[in-house]
Design brief:
Shape: globular
Oligomer: single chain
Structural class: mainly alpha
Number of strands: 0
């Protein structure tokens, strides 16, 4: 067991793990960039599917799209493996046991997200994917004992996570995790980081709000994924302005993903 832990620590600190972690952040940036562009087309009157599946479908339709999706799947999986190592043998610089295990748990949650992204990409390659429809799983969960409360709790959690991202972005709490560049580039990183994290937080809060609404009204159809949330936003008063603001938020987070891949301390 000791030798296995030692090997895991060596792997976590290796150059390969570093590249794997950064490649996953780049892949995340590519995904959000395409989602932002699709949302922009929706704002111009198009009918694109502005979410993860829509982005992957769009990428698959490009020249060498299949190869590109393979690269993205590998990058997502590589980042997930890095997060697993971080969640099991990493975070050793944290002296407080409670904080160390909390951070390790968070790393494992991130690993699950990136494994999901890798799996979704592979699924699209093998089966053709499908549309995102948040109401179907929400309806299933609402059929469980206390399922309505569970959906509401998840919605509240997503809203809180979004608000935390907004606060982190506004307070620039992300800078201590970066090898900050000097000169004008430092200001670029700070501004893009603020816009990207705050923008992503707003999107999360929007989706979480729809989940809470679905639980409160006992109507699964009110639970919406990203695409449906953006299109619902467009139907509100000043919807076009709000939708363009969401487009800016999505593109800002994509830009932040690329900068984080470059400057993140791992």
């Amino acid at each position: 067991m000791t030798s296995l832990a030692h090997a895991a620590r060596r792997a976590h600190g290796s150059e390969a793990a570093d590249w794997g972690a950064r490649s996953g952040l780049v892949a995340r940036g590519v995904l959000w960039l395409v989602v932002g562009l699709l949302a922009g087309n929706v704002a111009l009157g198009g009918h694109d599917q502005a979410d993860k599946n829509g982005a992957l479908e769009t990428l698959r339709g490009q020249p060498f799209g299949g190869a590109l999706l393979v690269v993205l799947a590998v990058a997502f999986a590589a980042h997930a493996v890095f997060r697993v190592l971080e969640g099991t043998v990493g975070r050793r610089d944290e002296n407080d046991d409670g904080k160390r295990w909390l951070k390790r748990t968070w790393s494992l949650c991130r690993a699950a997200v990136y494994f999901f992204l890798a799996g979704s990409t592979v699924k699209l390659l093998l089966s053709g994917g499908g549309n995102e429809n948040a109401s179907k799983p929400t309806a299933q969960v609402m059929g469980w004992p206390a399922g309505r409360w569970l959906v509401g709790a998840v919605g509240v959690g997503v809203v809180v996570a979004g608000l935390v991202m907004i606060v982190r972005g506004v307070r620039e709490d992300f800078t201590d995790k970066l090898k900050m560049p000097g000169g004008a580039m430092r200001g670029v990183v700070e501004k893009v980081g603020t816009a990207g994290l705050a923008g992503r937080g707003l999107v999360y809060a929007l989706i979480g709000g729809f989940l809470v609404q679905a639980a409160a009204t006992f109507d699964p159809q009110k639970a919406k994924g990203l695409d449906a949330s953006l299109k619902t936003l467009a139907r509100q008063p000043y919807g076009t302005v709000l939708l363009w603001a969401a487009v800016a938020a999505l593109l800002s987070f994509a830009a932040w993903s690329f900068l984080e891949a470059r400057y993140r301390e791992l």
